[in-house]
## 1
Amino acid sequence: MRVCLWFFVVVIVFGFGDGKNADQRLRTERISGSAGDVLEDNPVGRLKVYVYELPSKYNKKLLQKDPRCLTHMFAAEIFMHRFLLSSPVRTLNPEEADWFYTPIYPTCDLTPTGLPLPFNSPRMMRSAIQLLSSNWPYWNRTEGADHFFVVPHDFGACFHYQEEKAIERGILPLLRRATLVQTFGQRNHVCLNEGSITIPPYAPPQKMQAHQIPLDTPRSIFVYFRGLFYDVNNDPEGGYYARGARAAVWENFKNNPLFDISTDHPTTYYEDMQRAIFCLCPLGWAPWSPRLVEAVVFGCIPVIIADDIVLPFADAIPWEEIGVFVAEEDVPHLDTFLTSIPPEVILRKQRLLANPSMKRAMLFPQPAQPGDAFHQILNGLARKLPHDRTVYLKPGQKVLNWTAGPAGDLKPW
Ligand SMILES: *[C@@H]1O[C@H](CO)[C@@H](O)[C@H](O)[C@H]1NC(C)=O
Ligand SMILES: *[C@@H]1O[C@H](CO)[C@@H](O)[C@H](O)[C@H]1NC(C)=O
């Protein structure tokens, strides 16, 4: 019965090679009002950023030791540094800066298998902040409130990959006044400060570009997902990993012909996404999964399964309009829910997704391009200006506690 319904949808909406429908499908649509326009803002002239000069042990040396840091999903911390060095928003005069940036790569410490280890990050951060607070007057002026840090780790500046431990640690005390640019985004969570900027994870732009297929290829897959359903090593029951959403997808739909889901990662993965109407994004705690980026870039409607998530650049990207949101507890009804979305709603989402500004905002290309994720970060920082007067402390006034936090974090780095 469902299969029949699905073929009905395919024929009326996607028309299998019908030229008129193909044209209609390719037309892009802009959202009137703020959202669509904000994405195209040009940050140049709206803010000035001062880039501190730090010894290379905080950045370049780490990268030399492990060049894989340039390709893993948290590589934005490195590319943002490179981008700022040659950006027209950079100022060499700290007196005129609106924002201060500290070039530090706290995530560039990888296990042999390439997973980032956050254990040294707190000491490294503390060491860098000590250095800049004693060599420049700007840190003490606000204790970091006009400084931003790129901290794209699992739980951002909580610097631990296990949620329980991350919550116990909280945001590194010295970073509590700073603006944090991070992939972690979960409402009402101690690891997300109000005023943080949530960014997409890094996904390799050239590689994705190389797998583009013709835009008028029919989307003959209804629902697509590739990835793990269970974290067999840490969580065999599946209740913790992605909060059970992935396990629920598998158990309910592994035999459903509308669902093209599997743990196998085929060489045609990117092409398949361009042949799919819906791409599942069971994101768990954070938009750090590259799946969200891939779905947007390949025009596959992201089905976001992550209660209380804060999505990347949510004040600029109209996620509600381009994506579909499914509550974690509603995963067992995904099939009914997705098949009952009216064709015209699907078509509108596809037209919005076809808008190049959405795709650009999700990527960190080399070299940078107007409207890309680097520019969205700058736009986010510009929208926070001017700084409230209360961020400037009175001479001698201290707010941060330099001795708070686990004893291990206070050791020199
Ligand atoms: C900033 O404050 C710290 C500690 O409170 C102090 O050690 C440092 O010398 C101050 N920096 C400047 C540039 O005055
Ligand atoms: C700073 O934190 C330490 C450790 O938690 C605490 O013992 C100390 O009282 C705090 N200092 C102030 C001034 O709050």
Note: The two ends are 63 Å apart (CA to CA).
## 2
Amino acid sequence: MKKTGGCLCGSVRFEVEGEPVSQFLCHCDDCKRQTGSPFSVCVCYKSQKFYLIKDDHLVGHDMVGDSGNSLCRKFCSKCGAPIFTIADMAPDSTFIKMGAFDDPSWIKPTLELYTKDRVPCGVTGFEMDSHEAMPPEF
Ligand SMILES: [Zn+2]
Ligand SMILES: [Zn+2]
């Protein structure tokens, strides 16, 4: 079954096929800044199951994470909506922002990362496997 999503203005549209590999919250300071929220919620798919249908105005911001690996945060340059991230440390994976899905109601994160950077309003009340930073097996 395919799921669809995109940015606020409709310049970027994507589809994913099948089930995600993982779903997690990230409390790191970079995610706060990029999303404007206490944490970001990411849904990870194998990149071959992720299809960009429309990528007008899709741009990327390259950064180096605190693990020393580089990553690229993709967003729409017209409306500013964050869409997905690709990371050198997981070259086969695409990390899609929960809010980019047309229907995010099915999304249920099971893991939270970088709880060392969690802010008081970033507490969810959900039972999750918590990690202070990046889990070693990630
Ligand atoms: Zn847009
Ligand atoms: Zn993060």
Note: The mean pLDDT is 95.
